[in-house]
Amino acid sequence: MTTLTGDYLTLDDGRPAVRLTRTYHRPAEQVWSYASDPAELARWFPSTFEADELRPGATIRFFEDPNMPESTGTVLAADAPRHLSYTWGADELRLDVTPLGDGTTRLTLTDVLESADTAARNAAGWEVCLNALDAADRGEPQAPSQPAWKELYDAYITAEFPSGAPVPGLDDRT
Fold this sequence. Notes:
- The protein is an alpha+beta fold.
- It has one domain: 2-Layer Sandwich (Alpha-D-Glucose-1,6-Bisphosphate, Chain A, domain 4), CATH 3.30.530.20.
- Helices cover about 25% and strands about 30% of the residues.
- It has four helices and eight strands.
- It has an eight-stranded antiparallel sheet with strand order 1-2-8-7-6-5-4-3, covered by helices on one side.
- Strand 4 (about 60-65) and strand 5 (about 70-80) form a beta hairpin.
- Helix 3 packs across helix 4 (about 150-160).
- The longest helix is centred in the last third of the chain and has 19 residues, at about 120-135.
- The radius of gyration is 16 Å and the shape is globular.
Protein backbone atom coordinates (compact mmCIF):
# COMPACT_ATOMS: atom_id res chain seq x y z
CA MET A 1 0.00 0.00 0.00
CA THR A 2 1.25 3.46 -0.93
CA THR A 3 1.35 6.00 1.89
CA LEU A 4 0.17 9.45 0.85
CA THR A 5 1.02 12.57 2.84
CA GLY A 6 -0.84 15.17 0.79
CA ASP A 7 -4.18 16.80 1.45
CA TYR A 8 -6.50 18.40 -1.07
CA LEU A 9 -8.17 21.56 0.17
CA THR A 10 -10.05 24.63 -0.88
CA LEU A 11 -8.55 27.84 0.48
CA ASP A 12 -10.67 30.55 2.08
CA ASP A 13 -10.59 32.48 -1.20
CA GLY A 14 -12.01 29.45 -3.07
CA ARG A 15 -8.80 28.39 -4.84
CA PRO A 16 -7.91 24.67 -4.87
CA ALA A 17 -4.63 23.54 -3.31
CA VAL A 18 -2.61 20.53 -2.28
CA ARG A 19 -0.62 20.58 0.95
CA LEU A 20 2.15 18.28 2.11
CA THR A 21 4.14 18.48 5.33
CA ARG A 22 7.36 17.00 6.62
CA THR A 23 9.05 17.24 10.00
CA TYR A 24 12.84 17.37 10.28
CA HIS A 25 15.14 17.01 13.27
CA ARG A 26 16.82 20.27 12.30
CA PRO A 27 16.64 23.89 13.43
CA ALA A 28 14.34 26.24 11.50
CA GLU A 29 17.28 27.95 9.80
CA GLN A 30 18.41 24.65 8.24
CA VAL A 31 14.90 23.79 7.05
CA TRP A 32 14.58 27.34 5.70
CA SER A 33 17.68 26.69 3.60
CA TYR A 34 15.99 23.54 2.23
CA ALA A 35 13.17 25.80 1.01
CA SER A 36 15.14 28.83 -0.17
CA ASP A 37 18.79 28.09 -0.98
CA PRO A 38 19.32 27.10 -4.64
CA ALA A 39 22.05 24.60 -3.66
CA GLU A 40 19.66 22.87 -1.23
CA LEU A 41 16.73 23.10 -3.66
CA ALA A 42 18.85 21.29 -6.26
CA ARG A 43 18.62 18.21 -4.04
CA TRP A 44 14.83 17.96 -4.30
CA PHE A 45 13.09 20.68 -6.33
CA PRO A 46 12.14 19.57 -9.87
CA SER A 47 13.64 22.63 -11.64
CA THR A 48 16.84 24.55 -11.18
CA PHE A 49 15.87 27.58 -9.11
CA GLU A 50 17.75 30.85 -9.65
CA ALA A 51 17.00 34.18 -7.96
CA ASP A 52 19.22 37.19 -7.28
CA GLU A 53 17.37 37.79 -4.03
CA LEU A 54 14.26 36.65 -2.20
CA ARG A 55 12.14 39.74 -1.75
CA PRO A 56 8.61 40.50 -2.93
CA GLY A 57 8.62 41.37 -6.61
CA ALA A 58 11.94 39.63 -7.38
CA THR A 59 12.12 37.32 -10.37
CA ILE A 60 12.90 33.62 -10.08
CA ARG A 61 14.13 31.67 -13.08
CA PHE A 62 13.18 27.98 -13.37
CA PHE A 63 15.06 25.81 -15.87
CA GLU A 64 16.52 22.34 -16.55
CA ASP A 65 13.23 20.59 -15.81
CA PRO A 66 12.62 17.75 -18.29
CA ASN A 67 8.84 18.18 -17.99
CA MET A 68 8.51 21.95 -18.18
CA PRO A 69 9.91 24.69 -20.41
CA GLU A 70 12.15 27.34 -18.92
CA SER A 71 10.04 29.94 -17.13
CA THR A 72 10.09 32.73 -14.60
CA GLY A 73 8.14 33.35 -11.44
CA THR A 74 7.73 36.21 -9.01
CA VAL A 75 8.41 36.23 -5.29
CA LEU A 76 5.13 37.11 -3.58
CA ALA A 77 6.34 37.07 0.03
CA ALA A 78 9.58 36.31 1.83
CA ASP A 79 9.92 36.30 5.61
CA ALA A 80 13.11 34.40 6.47
CA PRO A 81 13.23 31.91 8.08
CA ARG A 82 9.48 31.34 8.21
CA HIS A 83 7.68 31.85 4.89
CA LEU A 84 8.38 32.03 1.18
CA SER A 85 5.80 32.16 -1.59
CA TYR A 86 6.16 32.66 -5.31
CA THR A 87 4.51 31.98 -8.61
CA TRP A 88 5.64 28.98 -10.62
CA GLY A 89 3.83 28.63 -13.90
CA ALA A 90 0.16 29.30 -13.18
CA ASP A 91 0.46 27.99 -9.61
CA GLU A 92 1.51 29.67 -6.38
CA LEU A 93 3.92 27.78 -4.12
CA ARG A 94 3.98 28.50 -0.41
CA LEU A 95 6.71 27.11 1.83
CA ASP A 96 6.20 27.55 5.56
CA VAL A 97 8.83 26.66 8.17
CA THR A 98 7.56 26.18 11.73
CA PRO A 99 9.81 25.35 14.71
CA LEU A 100 7.99 22.84 16.92
CA GLY A 101 9.89 23.53 20.14
CA ASP A 102 11.39 20.06 20.57
CA GLY A 103 14.33 20.48 18.23
CA THR A 104 12.24 19.63 15.20
CA THR A 105 10.90 21.86 12.45
CA ARG A 106 7.90 21.35 10.19
CA LEU A 107 8.07 22.24 6.49
CA THR A 108 4.68 22.78 4.87
CA LEU A 109 4.47 23.00 1.09
CA THR A 110 1.20 24.33 -0.28
CA ASP A 111 0.68 24.34 -4.03
CA VAL A 112 -2.18 26.70 -4.82
CA LEU A 113 -3.44 25.27 -8.09
CA GLU A 114 -4.48 27.05 -11.25
CA SER A 115 -7.03 24.30 -11.78
CA ALA A 116 -8.44 21.63 -9.47
CA ASP A 117 -7.87 18.88 -12.07
CA THR A 118 -4.09 19.17 -11.48
CA ALA A 119 -4.41 18.10 -7.82
CA ALA A 120 -3.58 14.38 -8.18
CA ARG A 121 -0.78 15.04 -10.67
CA ASN A 122 0.85 17.77 -8.60
CA ALA A 123 0.42 16.02 -5.24
CA ALA A 124 2.18 12.95 -6.66
CA GLY A 125 4.97 15.13 -8.00
CA TRP A 126 5.49 16.95 -4.71
CA GLU A 127 5.41 13.63 -2.88
CA VAL A 128 8.31 12.42 -5.04
CA CYS A 129 10.19 15.68 -4.50
CA LEU A 130 9.73 15.68 -0.73
CA ASN A 131 10.76 12.02 -0.57
CA ALA A 132 14.00 13.13 -2.25
CA LEU A 133 14.38 15.91 0.34
CA ASP A 134 13.78 13.39 3.14
CA ALA A 135 16.55 11.20 1.73
CA ALA A 136 18.91 14.17 1.37
CA ASP A 137 18.15 15.22 4.95
CA ARG A 138 19.17 11.72 6.08
CA GLY A 139 22.37 11.99 4.03
CA GLU A 140 21.24 9.42 1.47
CA PRO A 141 21.95 10.01 -2.23
CA GLN A 142 18.36 9.20 -3.25
CA ALA A 143 15.12 8.00 -1.75
CA PRO A 144 15.50 4.21 -1.55
CA SER A 145 12.53 2.02 -2.40
CA GLN A 146 10.14 4.96 -2.63
CA PRO A 147 7.01 4.71 -4.76
CA ALA A 148 7.36 5.99 -8.30
CA TRP A 149 5.36 9.00 -9.46
CA LYS A 150 2.82 6.90 -11.41
CA GLU A 151 2.08 4.72 -8.37
CA LEU A 152 1.57 7.86 -6.25
CA TYR A 153 -0.57 9.47 -8.96
CA ASP A 154 -2.82 6.42 -9.13
CA ALA A 155 -3.07 6.38 -5.33
CA TYR A 156 -4.06 10.07 -5.26
CA ILE A 157 -6.75 9.38 -7.88
CA THR A 158 -8.00 6.49 -5.74
CA ALA A 159 -8.03 8.92 -2.78
CA GLU A 160 -10.39 11.04 -4.90
CA PHE A 161 -8.09 13.98 -5.57
CA PRO A 162 -9.32 15.85 -8.64
CA SER A 163 -7.53 14.68 -11.78
CA GLY A 164 -7.68 14.82 -15.54
CA ALA A 165 -5.05 17.46 -16.35
CA PRO A 166 -2.47 16.57 -18.99
CA VAL A 167 0.66 14.88 -17.67
CA PRO A 168 3.84 16.37 -19.21
CA GLY A 169 5.97 13.71 -20.80
CA LEU A 170 3.29 11.02 -20.64
CA ASP A 171 0.17 12.53 -22.10
CA ASP A 172 -0.25 13.08 -25.85
CA ARG A 173 -2.40 16.12 -25.09
CA THR A 174 0.65 18.13 -23.94
